[in-house]
From TrEMBL:
Signal peptide feature range: none
The name this protein goes by in its record: POMP protein
Top-level lineage group: Eukaryota
Any GO BP annotation: proteasome assembly
Pfam family name, one: UMP1
Gene for this chain: Pomp
One GO CC annotation: cytoplasm
Family the entry assigns: Belongs to the POMP/UMP1 family.
Keyword annotations of the record: Chaperone
InterPro entries associated with the record: Ump1
């Protein structure tokens, strides 16, 4: 009955941010940095893909185990709670700690790399609040 669990996990995969792309849209250097063809083709290290997908793979394993032990309702309830918690966010120019999501996953008592040295993707440079809100709302 793997079809049911794959259906449950399909909706839990985070979708990357889509933007309206046209024939004349260029690369946004301020938000995405410089492009490199080599980085787009190959990962810089063999474990990079594994590390990027670690949380997703761990969630899939936990949902499959939970379904085998407690039935279909347990992973469904947990996924609904994950979605509800992910919808609560701060304004785009403020850093969010996502403490409720960490609590649901059981990571609230774990000290990791991002707790000490912070996540490299989360820089301390704050952008212009009005421009970031207009971008999020699709006005820019």
């Amino acid at each position: 009955n793997s079809r049911g669990s794959s259906y449950l996990l399909k909706d839990s995969i985070p979708i990357t941010e889509f933007s309206a792309s046209g024939p004349f849209e260029g690369h946004d250097l301020l938000r995405r940095g410089f492009t490199s063809v080599k980085n787009e083709l190959l990962p810089s290290h063999p474990l990079e893909l594994s590390e990027k997908n670690f949380q997703l793979n761990q969630d899939k394993t936990n949902f499959a185990t939970l379904r085998n032990i407690q039935g279909l309702h347990a992973p469904l309830k947990l996924q609904m709670e994950f979605r509800a918690v992910k919808q609560v966010q701060r304004l785009p120019f403020l850093h969010s700690s996502n403490i409720a999501l960490d609590t649901l996953r059981g990571n609230d008592e774990c000290i990791g790399f991002e707790d000490i040295l912070n996540d490299p993707s989360q820089s301390e440079v704050m952008g212009e609040p009005h421009m970031m809100m207009e971008y999020k709302l699709g006005l820019l």
